[in-house]
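Before drawing any conclusions, I looked closely at one protein, both as residues and as discrete backbone shape codes, quoted below without any editing:
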Amino acid sequence: MFLLLSLCMSSLLLHADAQERASLWRGNDRSGRCQYSFTVPSPVESSCPQTGGPEMEGLKARLSMLEVLVARLTGGETVAPQRAGARAQSELQAALNRATGEKNLLQGEKERLEQQLVGLQGRMEEMRKETERLRNRPCPPQTPLVQPSPSLQGSGLMRPTGGSSAMSHLMTRPNRQGDSSSLRDSAWPYRSPGFQELKAEVTEVPAPDGSEENTGCGELVSVGEPVTHRKADNIEGKYGVWMQDPEAASLYGPNMIWRIDTIGSDVRKLFGYEDMEQLAKGFPSKVLLLPEQVESTGATVYRGSLYFQRRLSRTLIRYDLASESVAARRELPHAGFHGQFPYSWGGYTDIDLAVDEQGLWAVYSTSKAKGAIVISKLDPSSLEVKKSWETNIRKSSVANSFIICGKLYTVASYTAPDTIINHMYDTETSQGKAVSIPFRNKHRYNSMIDYNRAQRKLFAWDNYHMVSYDIKLGRQQAN
């Protein structure tokens, strides 16, 4: 280093001698190091300037170039940054490797948790299905059966044993209001003592043979597989009601289908379709804007009028389809509304209107009935209650109901794909019983089930889908 510096200084000294102005000397500084000094007189100044000046700046530039030259020759300044850069790169690579390893561990933990979640969801679904199966399973008979007598062997029927058991008592007399003490089910300790669900023997009714037309008005024997006619277009059609007038007015033909989507804060649109084919295509021929908002899925049509419950009230409205105006309105006495006594699926289904061979009905409950289903026969013109029956069936324990030939039938579940029709109440005899008729919820969320007298079918609204069911009725028993 010193040799190279000396050579450089010698070169500068020779250059200075050429001008006969520069001088160079060598000596030790305070720390004992060798220090070279040289001077170049300024041709324009007699003394060194205190600050700045062209010569000072040029001198600084030459000294900087000299320092850079010395650094390059020695190689010390170059090696150190290279080593520092390699060390920093190595540390960064190690940090990257650690981060990658942690990411892989977290990814594996995430996949494991997702697998556990899927397993838990599967177990929950199995438990839900088991719960529905147990809920829909018919109650076992509580009265032992005896061998049939010779006179009954040919008919294939069996009767319960005689005695003073509650079941025998139920099978030998009509159900009267207020006499519910013998119907209490000890298996449900939390039930209100004011009413109990009806428990009775399930009687199998033979289906009519092929030679007999299904035009009678006996008990319901079977319900066919659901047939899907249309799926709603948007979320407003998740729940709804569709219906057909069994005694259509002359303005609309007998094949006219009516539909209301019941989700939304302003449910007032009534769609009319000329027939089932147009319903399937989604082409309404008539759209009416009702003057009052509709509550839930309990509406029906009869004799040229739409009957529905006004939102947030117990008021029933008869809307004349020909004049497109309200023809009558009346409060249903003491009826619960807006979530007081709905079906088990909810949806503010407190008041459910129905039409069958005998006319217009309302299915609801009251505070006096303590949640038990009340059936009222209504005057179709004035909406006045003509007669009422209080059953022993808890309304919130069933998913839905419908009326055929003056008999109320209830469905056990609205979500189970395979459920049953579990209760029947006959308004003619004021007597009810438990039944077990298979029923399918194809799309697993049935929010409306009504009897369509015009087509002798059940209409239902199952999770956006409008479906229908064929039915079979037994022979009407002579009085």
About this structure: The two ends are 132 Å apart (CA to CA). The helical segments are 2-19, 54-74, 76-136, 150-153, 166-172, 276-281.
